[in-house]
Every structure is written in structure tokens, then in C-alpha cells.
Amino acid sequence: MPSGRTAAGCCRPKSRPAPAGVPRCRFGGCWTVSCTSCGPAANGRPSHGSLAPARRSTRASRSGRGRACGPACGPRSCGTMMRRTALAGTGSRPTVRRSLPPLGGAATGPDPTNRGKLGTKRHVLDDRRGAPLGVVLSAANRTDMKLAEAVLDSVVVARPAPTAGHPQHLCRDKGFDFAETDQAAQARGYRLHTARKRRRGEAPVPPPTGAARHPARRWVIERTNSWHNRFRKLRIRYEKQAENYLGLVEFACALMVYRLCLILG
User: Fold this and answer.
1) How far is CA 55 from CA 31, 45, 73, 78, in A?
2) Which of 50, 55, 191, 206 is the most buried (most CB within 10 A)?
3) What are the structural domains of the chain?
4) Is the pTM of this model over 0.85?
């Protein structure tokens, strides 16, 4: 019989006499050699001296504890075994409990691009180099135009006053094509460059030509979003409080500005 910790009591009463020629179990008074209660509890293998083949552990519970049964022991021989580990020698992966993020929290909502799972959206304002100037958090299901004014007011540095010789341009996508957002941006002295939506019944607007045509600048903010996602702490939000996650986002923005100053000066 192999040595090991006993996982459960013997499956046969000690008063039952053993058949002739069958050795007794030294861990108890049972005479069934394939009893799982006397074998190693980690893998459910039968004893070396088994006269009847035993079944390996195939059942498991949510608590990570396995159960094994010997075909010759009857239904009462099923005993709860010790917790599986990686050194058990079962040939299967150990039972591991995942550390899931907390449910809910402030500034979270169903993400329409990720099957309705809870998520947080980062609204970022950056300069032409891609350095973030301000950031605002909201639920994943909030539209961009609802936070347009808050993003413009979230600049953390002193903004210079725009002049006729040095105007300040603001490039936006079609998600900001609303009269409310246009008025808010013009009231703050920005020159708007917004991709316009085509309303129903309107003729397509031809693209500008000559001096009125400006190069595309959407890739700048998309690159900034990609830099944010390269921080593993920001890619999946595990913080329950929105203030804690916002602090991590702002710290990442500071690192991005520092690296841009080192490279671009």
C-alpha cells in the first residue's frame, strides 16, 4: 500500500471478516485494497496492491476539492479528498480561482462595443504632438458630445490666449457635430475642424480643396489612446472608486508628457 494522508474513513465496517488470502489494510480494518480512503488523496490513484481496478478522480467541486470512487467499495466509499496542487501528479491543471474585478463602481456603464460589459470611457484633449492636456472619465455608454465642455475645461496647464496671428485649432470627429458643442468651442476661442455628418435628405458635401484643406489629424488622438492602453493598469479597470482610476490616468499622462519632452524636446 502506498503511503499518504487518509482523506476519509474506511468504507467497510471493521467487524466484517476479510476473505482468505486478501491482505488487510494497515490504515484500518477494511479488506478492500482499492479503497480510495487509504490511497493518496491528491490524485485518486489506486493502491499498488489493488486486486480490483479503481477509477481515477474525475469529479470536482467549486471549492477545488476532488472526489474519487472505487468500483469495489460501494457508494459509501466516495470521500472528500484533499485540495489539489500542482505537484499532485494528476496530469491536469490545478484548480485556480480567478481574481475578478469588482462589479459596478462610479463612472461605469454598459459598453456598447464590448457586449454590454461594464466599462469606463476616457475623454482626452491633447496638443498636436499627442501630449495629453486634460482628461475626463465617464461611463462607457455616455456620448462624446455630453462631455465636450468638460473636456475643454479640464486643461491642467495655463492656456495662452488665442490671437489672430496664432489661432488655436480644434480638430474633432463626427461625434461632436452638434450645435451645442460648436457654440461651446467657439466661445472658448477655438477654430473648429469637425467632420460633418450627412443628414437624411442632404446632398454629400464635397471635400475642401486648396488652402481650405487641412491634413488629417485624427491619428494623433488615436495614438494617444493607444499609449494609454499600453499601461496595463489602465487597460482593465480594477479600481472601485473613480478617483483612484483617474489618478492613475493622470499619472500615465504625466509619464507620456515627460517622454515626449525627452524625445521631441
Assistant:
1) 18, 8, 11, 11
2) 50
3) 1-95 (no CATH), 109-199+216-264 (3.30.420)
4) no
